[in-house]
Design brief:
The protein is mostly helical. It has five domains: 78 residues, Winged helix-like DNA-binding domain superfamily/Winged helix DNA-binding domain (Arc Repressor Mutant, subunit A), CATH 1.10.10; 161 residues, no CATH class; 116 residues, no CATH class; 85 residues, Winged helix-like DNA-binding domain superfamily/Winged helix DNA-binding domain (Arc Repressor Mutant, subunit A, Orthogonal Bundle), CATH 1.10.10; 77 residues. The chain contains 26 helices and twelve strands. It has a three-stranded antiparallel β-sheet with strand order 1-3-2. A three-stranded antiparallel β-sheet has the order 4-6-5. A three-stranded antiparallel β-sheet has the order 7-9-8. The chain is globular and about 85 Å long. It comes from Neurospora tetrasperma (strain FGSC 2508 / ATCC MYA-4615 / P0657).
Length: 624
């Protein structure tokens, strides 16, 4: 798959930032030249074969490469795994997400896997056991403070790994892990042809069957990484094992929670599953949207709903070849109000965030309206002709005095609701209007249509960026072009009610940044530019592509500025790395040196924060 230049440069700089110059040079060569053998990498990168092999080992250890063996020459050929390389920038977000969901122990395990790359379970257990033994050796800490262990036993480590594997945040390395999607598809094509179509594909029916066989074969390959999860599922899953433990404790046989999980096969090699991590990051982002627009209590309810819905969602974007389902299989997952209520903490006050409006002012039939089917061909952009036609004249809300009187008499409607009904009010609020966070798909059943929801949020993000860069006038012009299609300058001027000079200046400004485009329409066969008509139009997909390229370019600039600052202050940074100075910089360093060190740390935080903000935009535009 082709990768834009800005993304290739960004990935190379991220590899350089985390793993050093040698792997980065090998990675850059593969990006520039495509699939290469060790001999060709050495030739193009001007590195020795030994250096190339060392760089390839580091890249393969961290799942940044694909490789295959050429059938003719017998040489291994390597290519880049650019998705894994870019996901390195999301390390902090992933660790924060795991910490919130699985606690410090889960975060510690994920952090070690991110640092080590693909790891055999026995090696990970041995590393933790060595650390536990070191901390438990009292003689080693006579003069120093004994550190607090996050993972305190092998049983606890096994339990944490089981939780992460069941959540699909960790998956298993298998024989085809390091083959690119293109290579796997070619291999499955050959196998299907050899087994089922030795005489070739003849007719439409055979072609459909061939595509189904290929999709089935690709799904089997993809499911090979879930072998550990399936074994754990055979033991009933974590929740079932905990319920059995409660029963045993009642019968007088208490068990530690860590001892309930089956021992994992120590020979298995595991790694971080970034696809599932991105699903969790999408849920986190959606909850942030709801917190900002509808309040924190409604956001908490939405978070619990998303946890239930995304349990069996392995990736944000389905594969058009593998994820082809029959109409019977296309069953939208949903959750009930009671299932969500079971997960909501009793300490959460569900009365918060619910509007206090008298029942006579609410259309119950409209609020409770069911939408059993997902929207089709939904236009992602909001209707630009928003008006208040659906609002009727008159004051439907109680006055402050009336509300106070109702509260004193215990007649406040929210307080009189049962807890399930209070939860329903939050869910109905999520289901209302744009952008459609939730769909009320059945009686007390709720679901989320992620594809149209993310399209709406992408459109909102694009409008926000257009307004920030080109102002309200620019956004208004873009909305006119979306509504009317391609327009000449005179027609656009009459609709926008702007002066010709201002219109030309604003449209040229937006054309330079990629939000507006022109099309030349010749008046005759000579195609004389002086006699041609130029039409303005808005291509949303092209605007997205232009914005994505600019985001990558900005991240590249941030990494380059950071490297320049490191070179400028390398004397101070090398001083701060000394063992007798580390952690005591303010006391051990001179005032001038410490001021430079503090300034560097501040600038580094600002640059990293800028990169995280840009990644939020990139994730929304291309990953979620």
């Amino acid at each position: 798959m082709a990768v834009i230049k800005e993304k290739a440069e960004c990935c190379t700089l991220l590899v350089d930032e985390l793993y050093g110059q040698l792997p980065a040079r090998v990675y850059a060569t593969l990006f520039q030249r495509g699939k290469l053998s060790v001999r060709l990498i050495s030739q193009f990168s001007k590195l020795s074969a030994r250096q190339v092999k060392n760089g390839l080992c580091v890249l393969q250890q961290h799942n940044l490469l694909f490789y295959s063996v050429d059938a003719n020459s017998g040489e291994a050929e390597y290519s880049v795994n650019h998705e894994y390389a870019y996901n390195l920038v999301r390390t902090g977000k992933i660790l924060e997400m795991v910490d919130n969901s699985y606690g410090p122990a889960g975060r510690d395990v994920m952090q070690n896997l991110l640092l080590l790359g693909q790891t055999r379970i026995s090696d990970l257990v041995a590393a933790y056991q060595a650390k536990i033994n070191e901390v438990n050796n009292d003689d080693a800490w006579l003069n120093d403070k004994k550190p607090e262990l996050v993972i305190k036993s092998k049983a606890q480590l096994n339990s944490v790994l089981c939780r992460l594997i069941e959540a699909e945040l960790i998956d298993v390395i298998h024989s085809k892990t390091f083959q690119s999607a293109h290579e796997i598809e070619k291999q499955v094509h050959r196998e299907v042809m050899d087994v089922y179509f030795p005489n070739g594909i003849k007719g439409t029916k055979a072609k459909v069957e061939f595509e189904q066989r290929v999709a089935e074969g690709l799904r089997k390959v993809r499911e090979e990484s879930k072998t550990l999860k399936r074994k754990l599922a055979q033991n009933g899953g974590a929740s079932k094992r905990r319920k059995l433990a409660v029963g045993n404790e009642t019968n007088g046989a208490p068990e530690e929670e860590e001892d309930l999980d089956p021992a994992l096969d120590p020979r298995q090699v595991i790694r971080i599953n970034y696809e599932k991590c991105i699903v969790e990051l999408r849920s986190r982002r959606l909850v942030q949207y709801v917190n900002e627009t509808l309040g924190e209590t409604t956001g908490y309810v939405y978070g619990q709903l998303l946890k239930q819905l995304t349990k069996n969602i392995s990736r944000c974007r389905s594969d058009p070849l593998m994820d082809t389902l029959t109409p019977e299989e296309k069953v939208t997952p949903s959750v009930t109000t009671n299932e969500i209520l079971d997960k909501v903490k009793t300490s959460i006050d569900l009365t918060l965030g619910i509007g206090k409006i008298p029942s006579k002012s609410i259309s119950k039939s409209a609020a409770e309206r069911l939408t059993p089917f997902a929207p089709k061909d939904k236009i992602p952009f909001m209707n630009q002709d928003d008006s208040d036609d659906d609002e009727e004249d008159g004051d439907y809300s109680d006055s402050d005095e009336e509300m106070d009187t109702k509260k004193e008499n215990g007649d406040a409607p929210v307080a009189r609701m049962s807890r399930p009904e209070q939860l329903r009010q939050h869910l109905l609020l999520l289901a209302e209007g744009h952008p459609g966070f939730v769909r009320h798909c059945g009686e007390d059943e709720w679901t989320v249509d992620f594809k149209p929801l993310m399209e709406n949020l992408r459109a909102t993000e694009l409008d926000s960026i257009i307004e920030q860069t080109s102002g309200r006038q620019g956004l208004r012009l873009i909305r006119i072009l979306r509504t009317k299609g391609k327009l000449g300058e005179q027609a656009l001027q009459s609709l926008s009610l702007m002066r010709k000079v201002d219109l030309q200046q604003k449209m040229l400004e937006m054309r330079l940044v990629g939000f507006a485009h022109t099309q030349e329409v010749p008046r005759d066969n000579k195609a004389d530019p002086k006699k041609s008509i130029f039409l303005w139009y808005c291509d949303t997909e092209q605007a997205y592509s232009s914005l994505i390229a600019k985001c990558y370019a900005t991240m590249v600039h941030c990494l380059q500025v950071l490297e320049v600052r490191r070179q400028k202050d390398k004397d101070v940074l090398s001083l701060a790395k000394r063992t007798n100075v580390k952690g005591k910089e303010k006391d051990m360093m001179r005032d001038e040196s410490y001021a430079r060190f503090a300034k560097f740390l501040k600038d580094e935080r600002l640059l990293m924060a800028e990169m995280m903000r840009i990644d939020d935009t990139l994730a929304l535009l291309q990953d979620f």
